[in-house]
Write a structure and sequence with these properties.
Strand order of the largest sheet: 6-3-7-14-8
Number of helices: 9
Largest sheet: 5 strands, mixed
Strand content: 25-35%
Radius of gyration: 25 Å
Structural class: alpha+beta
Shape: globular
Helix content: 25-40%
């Protein structure tokens, strides 16, 4: 069933979306902006405002989003695979969006102990106390290993708990800097997680909501695909064309267009941003002129 909100005499279809509050908030808002959606939210507000009148939502901690989407209070949401597994609720995984707080990569939940701990393997944790926010996943992980441990929920600042308050922790890492700063070492990875776009099963059966969600997923994927790429265009003498195209690591093949001057062509490519600083001087030396680098918002494959 599609829900409608009355605005005067106009029936407005609305897709209710949960956006993650906390570490993913900034990167999520940035991704939506590149996808073409402007979101504004007050400093103390949990109700984001979209420039798309068919979207409404709430800012909620990623841990809670699977529950509220599964219960139908919200139609769709962005949360981590980790919290979907932890909650064990019935949702539809619409799309995998590989981004985190600091980059375009998965994150990991790892078992960690103090650097000077005598614990060298998971087996050494038999009978020990583990502190974590990811309680259910951690319990199941050690159960499958046949290791009996006591798992307690951590309300935060988990890295500071060993060795006084816990023997080990299971903690989320992206770069590992926090573990190193707290003199902890990793024993093993418990779970690798990526951001997921999820939907309520009933909402997913609604034709309009499903179409709206799939359109949103397409645009978000396009924004992520463009995140680490740029466009380059340049003027190239035909005599130098082969030499220059051999330098270009294009997404597929360069686009080559004729110019009014029959001795020149225009060349345009999409490439990884990280190679541009080394590539442009080479292109210049190979005879390219009028080289322009420009940012990309979306790449739709």
């Amino acid at each position: 069933m599609t829900f409608y909100i009355m605005e005067g005499n106009i029936n407005k279809r609305v897709l209710k979306i949960a956006l993650p509050k906390g570490s993913l908030q900034t990167s999520t808002f940035k991704m939506f902006e590149k996808a073409g959606f402007q979101i504004t939210v007050g400093a103390r507000s949990y109700v984001p405002r979209f420039d798309d009148p068919e979207l409404e939502g709430l800012l909620i901690r990623a841990q809670e989003i699977p529950y509220y989407v599964a219960e139908g209070m919200l139609d769709i949401g962005l949360t981590g695979k980790d919290w979907i597994v932890e909650r064990g609720v019935e949702i539809v995984e619409v799309s995998d969006l590989i981004y985190a707080k600091e980059g375009l990569r998965p994150v990991r939940w790892v078992v960690a102990v103090p650097e000077d701990s005598a614990i060298q393997s998971l087996a050494d944790l038999e009978g020990k106390l583990i502190a974590t926010e990811l309680v259910n996943v951690t319990r199941n992980f050690f159960k499958t290993k046949g290791i009996n441990v006591q798992v307690e929920f951590s309300w935060g600042a988990t890295e500071v708990k060993p060795p006084l308050l816990a023997d080990a922790i299971v903690e989320l890492i992206e770069t590992g800097n926090s573990l190193r700063a707290n003199k902890l070492r990793i024993l093993e990875t418990v779970l690798e997680s990526t951001t997921k776009l999820i939907a309520n099963p009933k909402s997913w059966q609604d034709k309009w909501k499903r179409n709206k969600t799939e359109n949103l997923a397409c645009l978000l994927h396009g924004a992520l695909a463009a995140e680490e790429k740029v466009g380059l265009k340049m003027n190239v003498p035909k005599a130098n064309l082969q030499r220059i195209t051999e330098l270009l690591p294009a997404l597929h093949t360069p686009t080559i267009s004729n110019q009014m001057d029959e001795e020149w062509v225009a060349v345009e490519v999409i490439i990884d941003e990280k190679v541009v600083r080394d590539l442009i001087p080479k292109l210049k030396r190979a005879g390219a002129q009028g080289i322009v680098e420009y940012p990309l918002n979306k790449i739709i494959y």
